[in-house]
Design brief:
Layout (H helix, E strand, L loop, with lengths): L5 H23 L3 H6 L5 H21 L5
Helix pairs in contact: 1-3
């Protein structure tokens, strides 16, 4: 079994959350993150959106070999 780093696990979880959220937005016009944190303009929602974006940039950098 492959051992995963903590950052890799966190990035994976954030990307799953972001992907599921976007899937629900596309299919049902339902933004779960905004619902949980009180709207798209709420600080909690913005933090989650930014963390998902950072996770995506991190994963992209790993995929293209910029980071080891």
């Amino acid at each position: 079994m492959m051992q995963r780093s903590t950052i890799g696990l966190v990035v994976g979880i954030l990307l799953v959350v972001g992907g599921l959220n976007w899937g629900l937005v596309g299919l049902f016009n339902m933004d779960v993150v905004a619902t949980v944190f009180g709207g798209t303009a709420a600080l909690g929602s913005k933090v989650v959106y930014v963390l998902v974006g950072i996770a995506a940039i991190y994963k992209l950098a790993k995929m293209v070999g910029i980071m080891k």
